[in-house]
UniProtKB/TrEMBL annotation:
<dbReference type="InterPro" id="IPR015813">
    <property type="entry name" value="Pyrv/PenolPyrv_kinase-like_dom"/>
</dbReference>
<dbReference type="InterPro" id="IPR018523">
    <property type="entry name" value="Isocitrate_lyase_ph_CS"/>
</dbReference>
<protein>
    <submittedName>
        <fullName>Oxaloacetate hydrolase class protein</fullName>
    </submittedName>
</protein>
<dbReference type="GO" id="GO:0016787">
    <property type="term" value="F:hydrolase activity"/>
</dbReference>
<dbReference type="GO" id="GO:0046421">
    <property type="term" value="F:methylisocitrate lyase activity"/>
</dbReference>
<keyword id="KW-0378">Hydrolase</keyword>
<dbReference type="Pfam" id="PF13714">
    <property type="entry name" value="PEP_mutase"/>
</dbReference>
<dbReference type="InterPro" id="IPR039556">
    <property type="entry name" value="ICL/PEPM"/>
</dbReference>
<dbReference type="InterPro" id="IPR040442">
    <property type="entry name" value="Pyrv_kinase-like_dom_sf"/>
</dbReference>
Length: 315
């Protein structure tokens, strides 16, 4: 990297947001994102070879606070976690939940700028009230349409300011999410998304469609604008495979609960066995070194060697 921010061939490096935009606009392609919430789950997803990751707000609340997704996490909780995950592999873009933006326009601006500074490729803002809840729980309340659009405008202005200061490095993909379907009906939800796209959002996100026809309609209405599908097992949306979601017209699909639910089940089985027998059966080939290799052990060793160190030569 040269002092002018260019690479040796004279071109600016692709940012995480630029890579995400490329994925979202590939023909006949859907980007499937596993829901991660900490360094371990992110490393597992990266090892599996996913093109894009999604940081779940529910998983962040559960892992950092041990609390349900009821609007208890703060911007600092989310931005810090997102920046850590984004840093693990700068070549793989991260989409992160940003809930309601955590306050009014000034706070939303701060949230967007913090996510950009942390290397996050995309975020979604929603129209629930500040004391929100998981999108697949009942009893959601949403703000009025003008308040929602003011949130999107604040995010767009914050991005413009960062682009002015940082160029392409100040970019982020803005995803407008509406939870109005449950409270106000399908037409109101579509209208909110239309207004959000006109205000500068890049992606439309209808939370909680209850049938495949609603999925098809929202994708058709906004094409060629990318539309995101949130797939939550046991939620209100019918289960679709990646190919089925692509056929419906979606360009990106997030699975926020895939890691959380797997951890709940597998860890529950392990501790039950430990409680019952006083011992744990580990799969063949499992060792501390295997686990640390997942977490970047070899890269750490190589860096130490490059600077002339020998601290980890016998690890």
């Amino acid at each position: 990297m040269y002092g002018n921010g260019k690479t040796a061939n004279g071109l600016a490096p692709r940012t995480a947001a630029a890579r995400l935009r490329e994925l979202l606009h590939q023909d006949d392609h859907i980007t499937v994102c596993p829901g991660v919430y900490d360094g371990i789950t992110a490393r597992i997803a990266l090892q599996a070879g996913f093109d894009c990751l999604y940081m779940t707000g529910a998983g962040t609340a559960a892992s950092r606070l041990g609390m349900p997704d009821l609007g208890v996490v703060t911007m600092n909780d989310m931005a810090t976690n997102a920046a850590m995950i984004a840093s693990l592999d700068r070549t793989v873009p991260l989409i992160a939940d940003a809930d309601t933006g955590y306050g009014g326009p000034l706070m939303i601006s701060r949230t967007v700028k913090s996510y950009i500074a942390g290397g996050v490729a995309g975020l979604h803002l929603e129209d629930q009230v500040v004391s929100k809840r998981c999108g697949h729980l009942l009893g959601k309340e949403v703000v009025d349409q003008e308040t929602f659009i003011s949130r999107i405008r604040a995010a767009v202005i914050a991005r413009e300011e960062m682009r002015k200061d940082l160029g392409d490095a100040g970019d982020i993909v803005l995803i407008a999410r509406t939870d109005a379907l449950q409270a106000n009906g399908f037409e109101d939800a579509l209208q909110r998304l239309q207004e959000a796209i006109e205000a500068g959002a890049d992606v439309a996100f209808l939370e909680g469609p209850t049938n495949v026809e609603q999925c098809r309609i929202v994708c058709q209405k906004f094409a060629p604008i990318p539309v995101l599908l949130n797939m939550v097992p046991g939620g209100v949306t019918p289960t679709l495979t990646g190919n089925e979601a692509k056929e419906a017209g979606f360009k990106v699909m997030i699975h926020p609960g895939c890691m959380s639910f797997a951890v709940q089940q597998s860890c529950g089985e392990v501790v039950s066995e430990l409680k019952k027998t006083g011992a744990v059966k580990t799969p063949p080939g499992t060792s501390p070194r295997d686990f640390f290799t997942l977490c970047g052990l070899q890269e750490c060793i190589e860096l130490d060697k490059r600077v002339g160190g020998k601290a980890y030569s016998s690890v």
